[in-house]
Amino acid sequence: MRIRRLKLSGFKSFVEPSELRIEPGLTGVVGPNGCGKSNLLEAIRWVMGEGSPKSLRGGGMDDVIFAGTATRPPRDFAEVSILIERNRTDDGGLSGESEVTRRIERGAGSAYRLDGRDVRAKDVSLLFADAATGAHSPALVSQGKVGSIIAAKPTERRLLLEEAAGISGLHARRKDAEQKLRATETNLTRLAELLSDQE
Ligand code: ATP
């Protein structure tokens, strides 16, 4: 999977609609302190499903919305889209381009779209997990991350390896399957009870 384009509107310091094309090869973002370089990386993590405001340097998720300045009023929403190029191996499906969008309205939470269709947060996180990437991908190295990996517990490091190996999506599906299995077992037990009552 490759990110081809990033679009932001009202996200942190990117108040005006902004578009960045990410060409093949190495991309560098340079600029003075506080110009928004880290905000760009956070926008990518956010649209991939980041659920922790703290890891986006905020107190609540609404803090990703442009908060206003002395000369500009705050915004009521933030929206980030990424255009991704999928490889055939990402999920066993067809290759091609897809656009993932996340939008948050102040006080009303956020919603996702995949190629214009409303989808669940879980669908988006599975899409990225199957391609061995996502909001917690070790490929997205934010400030302080290297130190935290050195200090991490073995179980936390294992999660990083599982994400890199692209198997974290399988864990989520296994949990779903186990829940369905338990519900089916309960139904079977109930059915056996009803049958024995009728005999
Ligand atoms: P450095 O080089 O120092 O790490 P940087 O280029 O990575 O800086 P960022 O940390 O991405 O800069 O951006 C910080 C700027 O974003 C600050 O000016 C901050 O006021 C602004 N900012 C963060 N959240 C919001 C928000 N919700 N609304 C408006 N501006 C915001």
TrEMBL record:
Protein's cellular compartments: Cytoplasm
Chain segments annotated as transmembrane: none
Binding site for ATP: P32, N33, G34, C35, G36, K37, S38, N39
Source taxon at top rank: Bacteria
Described purpose of this protein according to its UniProt entry: Required for chromosome condensation and partitioning.
Protein family according to the UniProt entry: Belongs to the SMC family.
Free-text note regarding domains: Contains large globular domains required for ATP hydrolysis at each terminus and a third globular domain forming a flexible hinge near the middle of the molecule. These domains are separated by coiled-coil structures.
SUBUNIT field: Homodimer.
Name this polypeptide is given: Chromosome partition protein Smc
Species of origin: Sphingomonas telluris
Lineage: Bacteria, Pseudomonadati, Pseudomonadota, Alphaproteobacteria, Sphingomonadales
Location of this fragment in the whole protein: 1 to 199 of 1139
